[in-house]
Amino acid sequence: MEIMVFFSLLLLVCSVSTYQTEADIKILDQQILNQQPSPYDINAVLREMAVSLAEQKVRITFLEKENQDQETKLEIQKTEIERQKTETDQLKLLSKEQAAKLETEINQLKLKSDEQEAKLESQKTETDQLKQELQVKQVAFSASLLDQGSGETGPFDTQITLIFKRVLTNIGNAYNPHTGIFTAPVRGVYHFDWKVYGHGKIETGGVLFRNGEKMFLAHEHQPSGVAVSASNGVALLLEVGDQVSVRLWDNSVVYDSKTHDTTFSGHLIFTM
C-alpha cells in the first residue's frame, strides 16, 4: 500500500517538471527568434562597412603618399644640410688657411718693415756720422791779437795765454776767442802757425803749448830797438779734446794793430 502511494507521487512530480521545461524552452526560442536580425539589416551593415573600409583604404593610401613625399623632402633637406655643412667646413678650412696665410704675410711685412726701419736708422746714423765727419774735417781758424785799435801786451814775469780776440776765420768753431784755446774736435793731424811782432829793445816771443806742454817757440830780440817779428809752424797729432794755445814768452812784449801783426792760425790736415 505504501509503495503504491510513493510511485504515484513520483509520477506526479515528473509530470509537473516536464511540463515546465517545455514551456521554458518555447519561451527561450521565441526570445532568440526576436533577437536575430533580418537579412535586410545584415546587408545594409555590410554595405556600410564596405564603404567605410574603402574610405579608410583611400585615406591610408593618401597618408602613405604624403608620408612618402615627406620622406623624400626630408632626404632632400638632409642632403642639402650635408652639402651646406660640407661647404661650411670647407669655408672654415679655407678661412683658417687664409687667416694663417694673411697672418704669415702680415708677419713678413712687419719683419720687412722692421728691417727697413733698422736699415733706415742705420743709414740715418751713417748720414749723421758722415755729416759730423764732414763738419769736423772742415776745421780751420785764424785770429789776430786785438779786436780793435793797436797796442802792446806785456811784459810779464810769467807766461800768460795770449787771447787772439779778432777772429777772421773759425770753421768748425774749434777755436775759442774768449780763452785763446783751440780744442781738437776729432783725432787727426793739425797744422798751426803763429807769429809775434814787437818793436823796441824788449824781446818778443810766443810759445805753442799742447795740454800745458811746451812744444815750439817763436822768439826774436833786437837790441837796437828796430821792430822785429818771429813766427813758427808745426804739425801735431791731436786726440779729441786736446788743447792748443800760444803763451807770451816771459818778460817779452807783443804788438798788434789793425794790420794783424800778431796772429794765431791752424787747420786740420787729415783725420786718423
Automatic annotation (TrEMBL):
<dbReference type="InterPro" id="IPR008983">
    <property type="entry name" value="Tumour_necrosis_fac-like_dom"/>
</dbReference>
<dbReference type="InterPro" id="IPR001073">
    <property type="entry name" value="C1q_dom"/>
</dbReference>
<protein>
    <recommendedName>
        <fullName>C1q domain-containing protein</fullName>
    </recommendedName>
</protein>
<keyword id="KW-0964">Secreted</keyword>
<dbReference type="Pfam" id="PF00386">
    <property type="entry name" value="C1q"/>
</dbReference>
<feature type="domain" description="C1q">
    <location>
        <begin position="134"/>
        <end position="272"/>
    </location>
</feature>
<keyword id="KW-0732">Signal</keyword>
<feature type="coiled-coil region">
    <location>
        <begin position="53"/>
        <end position="140"/>
    </location>
</feature>
<dbReference type="InterPro" id="IPR050822">
    <property type="entry name" value="Cerebellin_Synaptic_Org"/>
</dbReference>
<keyword id="KW-0175">Coiled coil</keyword>
<feature type="signal peptide">
    <location>
        <begin position="1"/>
        <end position="18"/>
    </location>
</feature>
<dbReference type="GO" id="GO:0005576">
    <property type="term" value="C:extracellular region"/>
</dbReference>
